Amino acid sequence: MKPANSFEEIGDLLRSQAPSCPPPAGLEARILLALDQRRHPAPRIWWPWLLLPPAFAAIVVLMWPKPTVPALETTRNEIPLASDPALESVVSVVDAENPLAAETDALSRDALRAGSFLIDCLPSVAFQSE
Amino acid sequence: MNPAETPDDAALARLAQGGSSAAFGTLVHRHHGRVFAFLLALTRHRQDAEDLTQETFLRAWDKIHHYDPRLPLLPWLLTLARRQSITALRRARPPIAEAPLTADVEPSSRALRLWELAKSMLPADTYSALWLHYREELPLKQVAAILGKREGAVKVMLHRARKSLAATASGTTPEIEPSCFPEPQRTMP
Asked: pLDDT, tens digit, for every residue of B28-64?
């Protein structure tokens, strides 16, 4: 059997019989299953993504140990005032008098002067009996 | 072998475009073998060819509304298949050496031995072009469209392939791998 030595015959020889490459037995079923899964995807469960994070955060907040604040020690440190005898005598005199008494007297005197002035400014009214 | 297009493909495609999964299932039944064979010729890896066949039909279902029913269906499917193989090559893993498909069966005819020789000595693109033109009997224009090449380039590719096959087949055996070009079994007279 002579091999084909003319490349024009090669084409005829290739066409005359081609190798058979049968697909695997389950390939068609696998393709149809993949198509069906694509058309009808499994419903995605979405609610855990909404509820779980807040629930976890709430648990963390509730379970978190409360911080203990240490008791503050308060002390009163009274600072002694410096004492000056001369100042203390003046302060005592001022504190003894009514601070408004001088003002009251001054206002009274002003009022008397203003009244006298107004009386002097008024024309004298002479009663003339007829 | 008859051309891929059958009169019912267009009608089934129109039904599939309307949403009929049964019509698309029929198309899968008709063409999955040929798509697988083409991808096997292209990838030379059986597992990859199976995965890519599945991906091709999933892609075809997603893009069925892009298909023009006035045109043959098989070239459109094979174009999608080739694009899927390119995408897979971009995420390629190291190729695993695979035993020849017909390791258990020795080619019993000149034609089958020639196909084995072509598979062993030709690059994947050239072997695919040979497959599409001589096995699927697609015209050069469709072969070029599927492979993403110009028609003239495909013609030159096929011419060189035939020439090298003829030279190798008629020449001495050192150029040929013994496992790919076995001696025919002599039957008892």
From this structure: 999 999 999 999 998 888 999 999 999 999 999 999 9
Q: pTM of this prediction?
A: 0.61
DSSP letters, B50-74, are HHHHHHHHHHHHHTGGG--TTS-HH
Token output for B183: 């001696």
Instruction: Compare all CA atoms of chain A with the CA of B160 and give the residue at the minimum distance.
Output: A7
Query: What is this model's ipTM?
Result: 0.74
**Which residues 32-61 of B are in CB contact (within 8 Å) with A?**
32-33, 36-37, 40-41, 46, 50, 53-54, 57-58, 61
The Cα–Cα gap between B12 and B76 comes to 14
- How many Å apart are CA B47 and CA B56, to the nearest integer? 14
Residue B25: list chain A partners with CB under 8 A. 32, 35
For chain B, report the end-to-end CA distance as a whole number of angstroms: 32
- Cα distances (Å, whole numbers) of residue A47 to A8, A50, A71, B32, B106: 69, 5, 46, 40, 60
Residues of chain B contacting A24 with CB distance shorter than 8 Å: 36, 46, 50
